[in-house]
Task: structure prediction
Amino acid sequence: MSEQNDYNRKLIEEFRADRSKTDKQLAGRPLLLLTTTGARSGQHRTTPMMYIPDGGRLLVIASNIGAPTHPDWYHNLVAHPHVTVEVGNDTFDATARVMEGTSRQDLWVRITESYPFFTEHQAKTTRQIPVIALERQTS
Result:
């Protein structure tokens, strides 16, 4: 896990070092930083991840590359749905909402059409991979 933590730490530093570049990408995929509050620790945790624009919100997918368990950041945002999102030059507070039912299914179809590797991730696990909408909070 420490290799992954080191990789993420470096990616976060690079992301924040060059805020002027608004189209941050990782392997050709759009990248954001998601800061959650630890479900048990209460500490802030920042995770770089791919996102998919969806109107006025951003979608993130808790695939964990098809692992049998959800990623830690998913458990954090379920416990504490108030998150901070950094994308390009923009940093904002958001509410994370786990999509369910037909809304989730409709989004999943669209997501896998654009990013078929998520179908491969789903095939590796028996859990349903969550789709989460990050909705900007307005003052």
